[in-house]
Amino acid sequence: NMVSSFRVSELQVLLGFAGRNKSGRKHDLLMRALHLLKSGCSPAVQIKIRELYRRRYPRTIEGLSDLSAIKPAVFNLDSSSSPVEPDLAVAGIHSLSSSSVTPQSPSSPVSSVLLQDTKPLFEMQQPSPPIPPVHPDVQLKSLPFYDVLDVLIKPTSLVQSSIQRFQEKFFIFALTPQQVREICISRDFLPGGRRDYTVQVQLRLCLAETSCPQEDNYPNSLCIKVNGKLFPLPGYAPPPKNGIEQKRPGRPLNITSLVRLSSAVPNQISISWASEIGKNYSMSVYLVRQLTSAMLLQRLKMKGIRNPDHSRALIKEKLTADPDSEIATTSLRVSLMCPV
Hints:
340 residues; alpha+beta; Transcription Termination Factor Rho, Rna-binding Domain, Chain A, Domain 1; Jelly Rolls; 5-stranded mixed beta sheet; globular
């Protein structure tokens, strides 16, 4: 009943959390979610369903008797998560880690009062959604044209800090002398006096989902400033359609031109965005080296050539991946033109 009441956005979040395909119409998503339940889902998926249902119907609390299932989401007594997120996430400096906030133990007086008188507490106030971890275990999809040299800011949650629709967070990172040297050496002057770098500072945003590697994904009404200067987002923002803002296609952002190339002065990034119900985002900053197509071609040649029979067997295996499917693929037209 809970899953059947979900909207498309909640079904997509649930399927993404469970590592299933989250594209398609609502009916397909619902069938996939119900099949996930029938096949026996893990306790983590069950907690996710309850969490999404509480967000959908905040006044309806299911399973009050099952306190063990809802305690982590409501009381947040886990010492690994900090109740307060620092406004400034400093790369390489651990003084702002969650250890600086003393977590309450389950035996503390405050938590014992909460656990003794559970029902009146639920009737008096709505449960707040669980606070995302400061540094979620998010993995980004690797980009074919870039080698990651260093992590300047590891994936950090863009946590809602107020009830306002528009949120803003600040982040700080500093470059080492070696990193500054690598960026400066890679500088190339282009026609028109423009500068380009093959070693770049790259900002990436994605959904805070830990079920699988994430593609670049921008939150709504995204605005980025680096050291107080507005960073122009790539592409264009299409005009609102039916009053709803259309999403920009996500991609990594090369912010090198606005970064202070000095190891003595830190860099500040300001990210503002419009919060969305049921969607949490993560940001991270990397030092990367841009690869040319000649480099990639050379790497492919070094890997060697696969036997044609092996390739045929792989293709046949992919075409018959779903043995329960009633539709058999007998032929397939594909383009051999390189998408790059």
